[in-house]
């Protein structure tokens, strides 16, 4: 809730457990522990909960391509824990936006909000786009695949310094092979493990973008 | 279950849903769907389940330091989903072993087994060691911290090519600051996100070890 307030979202009403202090200075209702537990969706709720106005989602995909920005795209990612984790690591790694395609879980599903741990309010989130929309807006679509995609390069040998959209696919089906992907990358892995799950793979990719960009900046500064 | 068999573990007894084929050629019992659902701990169980002999855990910590091996150490990691994910990414990144300290969740807790997705049988798992044991066995303990630890370096600027033990701490308390850590690394992150959770941070670290080692091998080959 503090993350929502700090992001400048409008807190419509706040509900506070008796004995605790409100976080906002707007309309506040004091409620007892048993009411709090019934209203909140977690087993051990925080003492402050609130009704927050949903941020307006940007739908101008080209405007997100300012400068050297990069974004994370979840293509029909179905599991809320996965999408929440993906938003969390994208924000931590410095992504400019997180985009979902139609068929993905809703950004404001309670389990997504919880797994995102406050990061959902820190970036523009754009829902219900298509990969064709992104391609039409000029994005370089970097598709990730756990399978041997023809022409795929190891993720750490791909250029992730230039402006790009890192696309992660559905848990079972991956990215549509017919999608207008510009280039494919893969995370080589050892051992008999099938593959990383989409949230783990996304975390590895996002931090590789951050690593390459940091390295690039340091070289530019002569370090 | 296939992962357990492929790893050479002894399958004591197999239970197969009527109409499905056994995976092993040992003692097999056929059971109906409702019995399967009662026995298995998942909501939609696989049709083949088995009683598997627990692998003997190695306790010779020095023997794991052969050649240039690296290991992942979970120091009092309490959440089974986190430990399972950590094992999964450690195996995918090529770790030689995964070690837990006393106070960590059990490797064979059902939720750890499930989150590890078969990878638990692919590496030696060593439980109930102390960080002092590891230091005494000669391990270079690389502690990771989400806080500003004095002297911590960015994880991608640390040498992870030489033999080392990457140590991840408890979800709330981190690694004991008094622990015999050789050097501290941190994952720099942007945005207002508190920090990555321990499973995500561990995945980033493990794949950075793999990346540096691959890069090192390629340089050695003159590539």
Structural features:
homodimer, 223 residues, alpha/beta, Alpha/beta knot, 2 domains, 3-stranded mixed sheet, 6 helices, 10 strands, 27% helix
Give the name of the CATH architecture of the largest domain in chain A. 3-Layer(aba) Sandwich
Largest interface: A-B, 38 and 38 residues
N- and C-termini, Cα separation of chain A: 40 Å
Global geometry of chain A: elongated
Q: Tell me how many strands of chain A there are.
A: 10
- Describe the main β-sheet of chain A briefly: 7 strands, parallel
Q: Would you tell me the structural class of the helices and strands of chain A? A: alpha/beta
Which range best describes the helical content of chain A: under 10%, 10-25%, 25-40%, 40-55%, 55-70% or over 70%?
25-40%
CATH superfamily of the largest domain in chain A, by name, is SPOUT methyltransferase, trefoil knot domain
Number of helical regions of chain A: 6
Here the CATH topology of the largest domain in chain A equals: Alpha/beta knot
Number of structurally distinct domains of chain A: 2
What's the pLDDT, averaged over the residues of chain A? 87
Listing every helix as H and every strand as E from the N terminus to the C terminus, the arrangement of chain A reads HEEHEEHEHEHEEEEH
Oligomer: homodimer
Strand content of chain A: 15-25%
Poorly predicted residue ranges of chain A: none
Strands of the biggest beta sheet of chain A: in what spatial order?
Answer: 6-5-4-9-7-10-8
């Amino acid at each position: 809730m503090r993350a929502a307030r700090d992001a400048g979202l409008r807190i419509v009403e706040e509900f506070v457990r008796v004995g605790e202090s409100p976080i906002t200075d707007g309309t506040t209702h004091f409620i007892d522990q048993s009411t709090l537990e019934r209203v909140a969706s977690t087993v051990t709720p925080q003492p402050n909960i609130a009704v927050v106005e949903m941020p307006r989602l940007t739908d101008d995909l080209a405007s997100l391509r300012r400068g050297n920005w990069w974004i994370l795209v979840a293509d029909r990612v179905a599991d809320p824990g996965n999408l929440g984790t993906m938003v969390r690591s994208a924000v931590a790694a410095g992504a400019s936006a997180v985009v979902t395609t139609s068929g993905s879980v809703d950004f404001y599903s309670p389990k997504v909000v919880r797994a995102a741990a406050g990061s959902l309010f820190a970036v523009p989130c754009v829902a219900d786009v298509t990969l064709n929309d992104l391609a039409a807006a000029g994005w370089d679509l970097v598709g990730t695949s756990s399978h041997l995609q023809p022409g795929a390069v190891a993720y750490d040998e791909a250029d992730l310094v230039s402006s790009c959209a890192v696309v992660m696919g559905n848990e079972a089906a991956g990215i549509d092979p017919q999608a207008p992907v510009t280039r494919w990358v893969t995370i080589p892995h050892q051992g008999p493990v099938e593959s990383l799950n989409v949230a783990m793979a996304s975390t590895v990719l996002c931090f590789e973008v951050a690593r390459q960009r940091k390295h690039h900046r340091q070289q530019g500064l002569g370090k």
